[in-house]
Amino acid sequence: xxxxxxxxxxxxxxxxxxxxxxxxxxxxxxxxxxxxxxxxxxxxxxxxxxxxxxxxxxxxxxxxxxxxxxxxxxxxxxxxxxxxxxxxxxxxxxxxxxxxxxxxxxxxxxxxxxxxxxxxxxxxxxxxxxxxxxxxxxxxxxxxxxxxxxxxxxxxxxxxxxxxxxxxxxxxxxxxxxxxxxxxxxxxxxxxxxxxxxxxxxxxxxxxxxxxxxxxxxxxxxxxxxxxxxxxxxxxxxxxxxxxxxxxxxxxxxxxxxxxxxxxxxxxxxxxxxxxxxxxxxxxxxxxxxxxxxxxxxxxxxxxxxxxxxxxxxxxxxxxxxxxxxxxxxxxxxxxxxxxxxxxxxxxxxxxxxxxxxxxxxxxxxxxxxxxxxxxxxxxxxxxxxxxxxxxxxxxxxxxxxxxxxxxxxxxxxxxxxxxxxxxxxxxxx
Length: 430
Fold this sequence. Notes:
The protein is mainly alpha-helical. The chain is built from 19 helices and 2 strands. It is globular, with a radius of gyration of 20 Å.
């Protein structure tokens, strides 16, 4: 089923999958500061920033199941001002998280009829970062492409009844307990999505071909350039930003169909990723992990304001760091830990986060140009990922290794967003 696609892909790394599902379940279904319908609507807002129909479809259904007002699905103009006020930091966190300031936090927390509490805001921030990063994984593994008629992703989910989703990692000793957890915490009923998808198919199929042709042409032009190289002196990039000019599909019949018209869940749709190197240096400084890190600062703050989520996030970060990638690293001529750190630090570099103890010249030595183009696209504008990019980059990688790269992207991106948001909250509190 389509909604099984994410867990099928993550199933190549069962320990990580279990950690991810625990976090997802806690964020969406366990006790916390935010009402359940609001959690799913925030997820819709986050996924819409990257035009991720897969996630929007999922949370539209869960929003209604949680008793959400169907009128809210008409768009941001139909939701309470308190929720609508979250749009600004959703937009900034999704595309340029270095622009988050304590003033954004103060504006949401100021005393008024629509003010947020600190605990509510931390819950919301974690949800936003979680869904933005998950959208990268969805596009990176081809789950979004598989939503369309016939599918067009090269990273195909395993066929039901053909091979167990965790067989690639667990061999013949498939963990029945893991399968039970997967079914129990499955993202949603695939039959419900099938019903929703059929309603949207008529509109979707008319526009998908045009959009795919445009993306393929754009990627060819991009590949002919000389971009995507990390400057070994300052870690900045010289790569044109292709995230311009996307127009969401139109809802031609006016029916509230969730993901058909994603524009209704966004304001300022033209706001997108911009190379950190091109920022206004008078306003934004490089974020140095030595000054504010997850381990020393972010973890304790988020755990204090939203009980236990810090432990779940920390487990997830550690889990992806511990995944084995010896074959992948060997082909790149380095140790697994060196290869993984190169990918992680490259992603953080794109968001202006720097490690003083890291030699950024290693990035160009470890990562081939096409791998860097792929990582940057999936990280910064995942909606631009297309089949041709898969074909050009994936040749020497096993399927589990492809998933591993996308898990590194997911977690590195999520941590980057959290670092900026939590630092701004800390500055506000001080």
